[in-house]
Design brief:
About 20% of the residues lie in helices and about 25% in strands. By secondary structure, it is α+β, with helices and mostly antiparallel strands. The longest helix has 18 residues. The chain is globular and about 55 Å long.
Length: about 210
């Protein structure tokens, strides 16, 4: 049997092998226990109802940030425990006119679907090449895991988008907030970012970090 046939058979067997490793139908997170590398412990299935598999939080906008004029509502394992162990999550993004989902990263791939409005979305790869595009209603774009990416509402009306990620716990980190909310001394942030002291202090004043 040649190599191509072996590769083809392997691709057929991988999903079958993965399926045989599933030993429970679901694992709704028990948030009273600490999280581990594989997620949360499972709640007792006998205590579950249909309500545990439904999340209604994406039906309305979240609290808007006055800094970025945008809001994000997350359906992740801590807000929708039924996602625990399933390798997926979702979020709702509402951007006011001129609103921004600031440059950030997470340990999961992401697909965005624009529902209303016009946004510019993009990411920067490890070669420092930027890929950005204007997206309109019905457009989707993907963002590879760990890469810095962003969304900006460039339209004349509010924008709405939904994103799907391939992790129940994507681990969001926003660059400006990470710098501004930290207790890392201002002079060290200056050295590692080339920002001047005034700009570092401005970020810390906005996001509550100590100087």
């Amino acid at each position: 049997m040649d190599a191509l046939k072996l590769i083809f058979l392997f691709t057929l067997l991988v999903p079958l092998t993965s399926a045989t490793n599933i030993v429970v139908d679901y694992c709704v997170a028990d948030l009273t226990f600490p999280v581990g590398p594989a997620g949360y412990s499972c709640r007792n299935p006998a205590t579950l109802t249909a309500d545990d598999f439904v999340y209604t939080g994406l039906g309305a906008a979240g609290n808007f940030s006055t800094t970025f004029n945008a809001a994000a509502v997350l359906a992740v394992d801590t807000t929708f425990p039924a996602l625990n162990g399933l390798g997926l999550s979702m979020a709702r993004l509402d951007l006011g006119v001129g609103g921004v989902i600031p440059i950030h990263s997470h340990r999961a791939s992401e697909v965005i679907l624009v529902v209303e409005g016009t946004i510019v979305a993009g990411f920067i790869d490890t070669n420092n090449t930027a890929f950005h595009k204007t997206l309109n209603k019905g457009d989707i774009m993907m963002f590879p895991p760990t890469l810095l990416h962003f969304q900006v509402n460039i339209g004349k009306s509010p924008a709405l988008a939904f994103v799907t990620l391939n992790s129940a716990s994507p681990g969001f980190q926003t660059t400006s907030i990470a710098l501004g909310a930290t207790d890392l001394p201002t002079h060290l942030i200056q050295k590692v970012t080339l920002l001047d002291a005034r700009e570092v202090r401005r970020l810390k004043n906005i996001f509550g970090g100590s100087n």
